[in-house]
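New to this. Look over this protein:
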Amino acid sequence: MNAEPTLPGVAAGGDVPFARDSAPFARARSQRMRRRAGLSLAAAALLLAAGLLVSAMNGTLTISLSTTLHAIGSGLSGRASELDTMGSIVWDLRLPRVLMAALVGASLGGSGAAMQGLFRNPLADPYLLGIASGASFGATLALTLSGHLPAAFADGALDLSVASRFVPIAAALGAALALLATLALSRANATRGGTTALLLAGTVVGSVLTSLATFLMLRDADRLRAVFAWTLGNLSSASWANLGRALPYAGSGIVVLFAMARGLDALQLGEDTARTLGVSPRRLRLGVIFGASLATAACVSFAGIIGFVGLVAPHVMRRLAGPGHRALLPASCLAGAALLVLADLGGRMLVRPAELPVGIVTTLLGGPVFLWILRQRT
């Protein structure tokens, strides 16, 4: 009788080496991915810390490192009133601005990563899908109805009064409605292809809402220059008061997005598989839309429309930290914060003593990246 055939190098009745060793291989790969994600998070955090410090030191005037650190230490210890002129510039003007840039960048980076995971599309971001334009329209409409639009744009900065502090909420509603309109239009034109339909729908919705917001703002033609500076993305309105107003909205949105990380990982395997893992795609979509809308609304309400941060930061960190959203979301927040802090610094340094709106700088950086990603997918 012939012996039972066996694989080369495997005794009859023995285990296949790959099957026996697959668990150690999987554990080793998992450890490598965790190490890679940890290193990426640490690198992004260090880049953000360095960017914050350098940005606080530089501007129209260059302030020394020792003076900058002294001003920060004095402010944190409650002795800001004792600071000299240079120290006051750091604590009262530059530090709120760089922290607002970090908060806005983190919100856009996290929102972009979550939406790319939700739609399984690397081109999804708050700017391209019309969310930023929807938030801008909601904020402008709220300011117009409250009667505070002329005063709000008097000096090119958005100064929310007590009567118009509901503006971020209106912006969040506008952002959510814009995203829902984009999704509805993309489904109606699904024959054009998923990515193409989504981008076309986002472009149409964003253009319409931007036009409506511009119409509302241009009713006061004397504010034309300030209005467009805000529309292009402007961090000059940053102050400790506005930072405190933006933080609850942006922070809440980011927390909601972080809570969606496990569901987003499951969704990458398909909706049916996600359901078997106990994830409801419908609840996941609602959670991501709510969190991204809230975070983006805070950004637009206090900094205007800033594009491509939510596209570039997640794309870079996905290559460095891996596709797992429990690492990708915080990494994208850190990278987005660092990117916007450095972009704002560049806008202040390139044409000083004047400054470029930060939205122009991010568009110049993000435009080529967008074209490169689009070329890869076509």
